[in-house]
Predict the structure.
Amino acid sequence: MRIAILEDDPDQLALLRRWMVEDGHDVHGYQSGRETMKQAGRESFDLFMLDWQVPDVSGTEVLTWLRANVSKTVPVLFVTVRDSEQDIVFALEHGADDYMVKPVRRQELLARVHALLRRAYPSEEQKQLSFPPFEIDVQRGEVRKEGARVELTPKEFELTVTLFRNIGRLLSRGHLQETVWGRSGDLATRTVDTHVSQVRKKLDLRPESGYRVVPIYNYGYRLERLEQPKA
């Protein structure tokens, strides 16, 4: 999963980043609220981990901005020294999904992150995905349309799984790149576009077939499910 962490203490940020990376996540760390909001406007993330007291824009202001401008459902976990009941209630009532008081313990933090991600993205746990007329077998690496196997390269298959698991959600090119190709800095953006085009063509993802891939200029893509055409 792709996680954004707002934490102004370099040592604490490095620790949280290491824990999350060792748990298998792609992590982007920011030390100011403004930079977090700037990047959240350009890129998509699966979870935000916010400190409260950071330079220029507080974590709660970032939370309010995220809920108004990015997503009302993306999980947000506060990790902060502020421990009063009033602070905890304020954060939760303004859109946070969970709240932890520093110092945090590694296993508890991971357990809470896992719980948030399971609730937000239940299809990530599924090995069989059904989106008629498509059936996707994640373990076997197969996509079938109306029973017939669709020949895809390994990267095209991973991209297909990512798009269908996030159906209706706008994903940035950077998000797709990290999910499918890993954090390869030398991968051309055009590679993502080319693979999306191939998946669209091979699966026939167009309105007439009930699905469409919507490109968002200078950002990324969203797979949408349309009302199935009547026979």
Remarks:
- Residues 34 and 53 are 13 Å apart (CA to CA).
- The longest helix spans residues 106-120.
- The two ends are 39 Å apart (CA to CA).
